[in-house]
Amino acid sequence: VSVRTIKSFLIGITTFLDIAVILSIGFGLLVVINSPRIIIKYRPFKRFLHKLSNLIGDLTVKSLSISIQFLHQKKWSFFIEEDISMDEWYLATSNHSSWGDVFCSLAATNFKAPLFKIFMKKDLWWLPPIFLANVTLNMPFVNRHSKQQLEQNPNLRKLDYQNTIASCKRFERQPTTIFSFAEGTRNNPKKHAEQNSPYKNLLAPKIGGIALGLSAVPKIDYLLDFTIVYKSKKRSFWDFCIGDLSDVKVFVKKLRIPESLKRRDYLNDPSYRTEFRDWLDGVWVEKDKLIDSVKF
In this predicted model, what pLDDT tens digit does every residue of 92-103 receive, in sequence order? Predict the structure, then answer.
């Protein structure tokens, strides 16, 4: 066993424990702070707790970002084209190929844009970080139904739509970033080939999550488009822990959402779905070109 292998193993274990400890502290504080919500229903007090929870979330992200980059002795590179603000509402999406994507995208706009509210798969509710994020940070669950399930029970689509709209309504109270990975799953060569994707570096985007977010929160005017490019071809969580994914460049574009796509009904308006898909496909074309152009 080489010295390099031992060093990578120790870095990986230390990074994993670092992530576990920081998340435990962050979520522990969130649980304690949000406990009074069970008995105190006074709306201004709940709004105060929500702001405090977001601050703790942002501080947790900052702690993770600093500690991981320190352990890996590498600085993540962020390129943000335009000014973004903590006082605006955003949709946000990113290409998705690694477990590290969430960490990198959160770090890129930490204390620059409102803390992400990430659409999370409901079938992962049993994972402690996922469950606690839902309860304390109001991150909404969404169901991922197969095409076969929807064909057997078309009412599932309507029910999911109504539940998602209801979950997102609370985001109108203060500036929020609604985040969803438009590809719906982590990209890899197998999935890319099976999908016969029209994009060289990406899976085709699914419009459901971000279109629903836009329908639910009319105050949103911009899309934050994250493009994450790693030097390494490795993609596992362990690869992230040992630092193989810390040579990374994150590009953030602030794109104005066309007025014609706002305040529309995603579920019952087929023309809206077509127009939204055409617009997002255009975003994906530019993203694909950007990935091709990145050099390390």
Answer: 999 999 989 999
